[in-house]
C-alpha cells in the first residue's frame, strides 16, 4: 500500500501544481492532475540531476536563489517555487498571494557566451518575453522573463563569457 510522504504546491512560470509524493516499498511516485508516475532522481553533481519519470529521463540543472529554484531543462530556463501544501494554504487563507522572486536579478542558467540582448534598459516586458540570448554547447538559449516587469539594467554585454549564476540583468 502506498504511503503519502509529502504534499507540495509548486508554481512553475505562474502555473500551480498540487504534487503528492508517495512511497510504495522501495519506489517513489508523484501524483498530479490525477495521474500517478513513478519517479527516480539521481544526483550527477552539485546542481545536475537525472530525473526519470516513468520511462522518460531528462538531465536537469537546478539551483536555488532566494527561495526560488532556477531550472534548466532541454534548452529552456524556468523558475519554480516549491512550498509545503499546508504553508501555501495558510498564505492563501491569510490573503497573501504567492509572490514572484524577491530577487529580481536574472542569472545565467549555464556557462556560455552572451550573443545579444533582445531588450534594452527601460523596456517593459511581459512574462515569457525573450530578454537575452546565450550560446552554450553550440545552442542558442533564450533567457525569458519569469514575470512582468521593466528592464532596470544589464550586467553583461554581447560577446561576454558568463558562468552559471552570473548576473545578467535586473527587472523591476
Describe the protein's architecture and organization.
The protein is mainly β and 172 residues long. It has two domains: 3-94, 2-Layer Sandwich (Glycoprotein, Type 4 Pilin); 105-171, OB fold (Dihydrolipoamide Acetyltransferase, E2P). The chain has one helix and 16 strands. The chain has one helix at 85-94; strands at residues 3-12, 15-24, 27-32, 35-43, 48-53, 56-65, 68-73, 76-84, 105-107, 112-117, 124-125, 130-136, 139-144, 149-154, 161-162, 167-171. The strands form three sheets. The protein has an eight-stranded antiparallel barrel. Mean pLDDT is 87; it is low at 96-100.
Oligomer: single chain
Number of domains: 2
Helix-strand category: mainly beta
The count of helical stretches stands at 1
Which sheet architecture does the biggest sheet show?
8 strands, antiparallel, barrel
CATH topology of the largest domain: Glycoprotein, Type 4 Pilin
Helix content: under 10%
Strand content: over 45%
- What is the overall silhouette? globular
Order of H and E elements: EEEEEEEEHEEEEEEEE
Unreliable spans: 96-100
What is the end-to-end distance?
A: 49 Å
Query: What is the CATH C level class of the largest domain, in words?
Result: Alpha Beta
Report the C-alpha radius of gyration, rounded: 18 Å
CATH architecture name of the largest domain: 2-Layer Sandwich
Strand order of the largest sheet: 1-2-3-4-5-6-7-8
